[in-house]
């Protein structure tokens, strides 16, 4: 059973009362900064939702984009919307209303969903790297290797690992007794700051956090690195400079997304919770909960010819009046 208690004295003796709320510190308590941050994060969240759902819609409606690469990309867009929606709306509510309270079971739900989506994204990015490896190094066998069944299995396995991580980390964390303070030094319910609130022995959940984080990063990052080493060697064997540039450009977007996501999450989770710092770590967390999900649709669409052409085609078909927005070389034919 989950335990959340407030002790009546430092020794924990006397009557204990059960509380159902945690209190999130948020990013800042400066009243002058709060309106600025509210507008920024509202704008960032709107871009995240519109960008990712827009990219997802383009992939679904366009038969041209019904390939393994875009199947993984559509799942990444879905994950980014869910991932950002777990943390940002609650943070915005706190900035707009000043109320940073979250119920105990709300905290359990937020932390659990966050773990599932964060870990799933690690292995989805690894699956995308493997897809690029097959496309570049075995182009003739690409469609037979990356068949729909394998693509579904890779995505399902990514979610399964995320679910297993959630069960291990949430169960070990929320079975602790919280009896010193209910103030979480973060803007959402995350595992490291929660461990600092417990008056129980946190050795087991800390070891689990480090073990799960190490496993997730080492396995998924190894797949990414090995895949791209093979891709790089294959690119070096291409005789023409134009061919090298074209092949590398198909991988550059994914490498950018991988660098942003892995860099920030490794900094947060692969170290002891005793080293947790509110100001520094909250700012780093903003990158992988807000900035990266917002940038991913831009990274994958601005450098992608297929996505841009599909977008203009959809724009042309949507309304004749929108044709004026299309570049001259893409204008609708006169009737």
TrEMBL record:
Name used for this protein in its record? Olfactory receptor
In which domain of life is the source organism classified?
Eukaryota
Similarity comment: Belongs to the G-protein coupled receptor 1 family.
Recorded hits in Gene3D superfamilies, A to Z, give: Rhodopsin 7-helix transmembrane proteins (1.20.1070.10)
PROSITE patterns associated with the record: G_PROTEIN_RECEP_F1_1, G_PROTEIN_RECEP_F1_2
Every copy of the G-protein coupled receptors family 1 profile domain together lies at 51-300
Q: Known SUPFAM superfamilies for this protein?
A: Family A G protein-coupled receptor-like
Which UniProt key words apply to this protein? Cell membrane, G-protein coupled receptor, Membrane, Olfaction, Receptor, Sensory transduction, Transducer, Transmembrane, Transmembrane helix
**Its gene?**
LOC101653202
Q: Where are the transmembrane segments?
A: 36-61, 68-88, 108-130, 150-170, 207-235, 247-270, 282-302
Q: How does it sit in the membrane?
A: Multi-pass membrane protein
Where is it located? Answer: Cell membrane; Membrane
Enumerate the CDD domains for this protein: 7tmA_OR5-like
Q: What is its main location?
A: membrane
